[in-house]
Write a structure and sequence with these properties.
Blueprint (H helix, E strand, L loop, with lengths): L2 H25 L6 H21 L5 H28 L6 H31 L1
Helix pairs in contact: 1-2, 1-4, 2-3, 3-4
């Protein structure tokens, strides 16, 4: 994969994690959403951290293992974003939450496709 593409994706996942932390600050004011917002934030930060580790993998197997984690965490983000969207009462958070829900789904789909490609490479080697 092109180094510039990897760098842009690393920046994108880092921005996703930072935006999740900022949203958690707002949502944390709703006591019933504290746990969900915290879970979302932790999963988003795991996407960023594990993507960073994935891009520094020493072997295809190590890359595939980290990619699996990144995909699972992105899927978890999509889940929590949906739960929060349906239960949120703070209109100030709606736009940011919708944007993060879309980003969660896009990252899940992107890493899911990458996972399928990597599995194919592993099985053919």
């Amino acid at each position: 994969m092109d180094r510039e593409v990897v760098r842009r994706l690393e920046d994108r996942t880092k921005r996703f994690a930072i935006d999740a932390i900022r949203l958690q600050r707002v949502l944390g004011q709703q006591c019933e959403l504290r746990d969900a917002a915290s879970q979302f934030s932790r999963a988003a930060n795991s996407v960023a951290a594990n993507h960073r580790a994935m891009s520094r993998a020493r072997s295809l197997k190590e890359f595939a293992a980290k990619l699996h984690i990144v995909h699972e965490e992105a899927d978890e983000c999509a889940h929590w974003a949906g739960v929060i969207l349906e239960t949120n009462r703070d209109v100030r958070a709606v736009a940011a939450l919708k944007a993060l829900a879309i980003e969660s789904q896009q990252l899940r789909n992107l890493f899911g496709q990458a996972r399928a490609t990597t599995r194919h490479k592993l099985s053919s080697s």
